[in-house]
Amino acid sequence: MKKNVFALSFLVFLISAVVLYFIVSFLSKDKENDLVNFDIENAKTQIYLTIPQINKNIENSDDMGLLINIQLLSKLENISLISVLDKTGAAIIPNNQSELHFDASAYTNAARANTSLIQKMDNKNVVLISAPLSGGYTLLCLVSIENAVKSASHRKIIYYGAAGAFDLFIFLSIYLLSRILIIFPFNRKDKALQKVKNEIKKLDEKYYADQALENKNNSNTYSAVQDLPKNNPK
């Protein structure tokens, strides 16, 4: 009985562990997407708020103002690299195009697009946000989502730890309740039944002992009668 209860509790433990694993995986991935999207949306908002001022600098040929706004934009959280492309797709900021660590396809798409784009990169920890500027220029911003990914990874560890503790709690609860509600009553009934069996056994032994004694007495009586002298008729 104890082995069966333990096996049942362990089976429930395994099933709940599998269910909790998939639930935690889903919740962790969903939370990671939320954190990543939050960082991207936050960076996109800051970029779009700065674009009108950058357009004004370009229209007024204010190179100094353009550099200042680009520098201010680069100091925003999670923005790791900024570039401005001219009409031909050449980088004017920075002047050395080799400093651009963009994937070739993403770079080409951004240069040719006439609308805002958010592109995934080969490096999964960054995304490329691009937007058209005045005069045919294009703004490229490399946004890091590494902090969001790390935060989601830490949360996943916490989720798995909590799920493991909860699964262990389920296992112990089922096992203890099974012992209280099944094993203990069964043991009490088994002991009571064993006690009744012992009493019956004692009664049987006493009965057979009495029978044996009675048979012995009867046998002795019969032998005594047989030993009495017989009266022969004359």
Concise structural overview:
By secondary structure, the protein is an alpha+beta fold. The chain is 69% helix and 12% strand.
Describe it for me?
By secondary structure, the chain is α+β, with helices and mostly antiparallel strands. The protein has a domain at 2-152: PAS domain (Beta-Lactamase, 2-Layer Sandwich). The chain has four helices and five strands, in the order ααββαβββα. It has helices at residues 2-59, 63-74, 104-112, 146-227, and strands spanning 79-85, 91-93, 117-120, 126-132, 138-144. Strands 2-1-5-4-3 form a five-stranded antiparallel beta sheet, with helices on both faces. Strand 4 (126-132) and strand 5 form a beta hairpin. Helix 1 runs antiparallel to helix 2 (63-74) and helix 1 (2-59) runs antiparallel to helix 4 (146-227). The longest helix has 82 residues, at 146-227. The two termini are 82 Å apart.
Tell me the strand percentage band. 5-15%
Gyration radius, rounded: 45 Å
Shape: rod-shaped
Spatial separation of the terminal alpha carbons: 82 Å
Judged by helices, strands and strand pairing, the structural class is: alpha+beta
**Major sheet size, sense and barrel closure:** 5 strands, antiparallel
Report mean pLDDT, rounded to a whole number: 77
Helix content: 55-70%
Task: Return the CATH topology of the domain at 2-152.
Answer: Beta-Lactamase
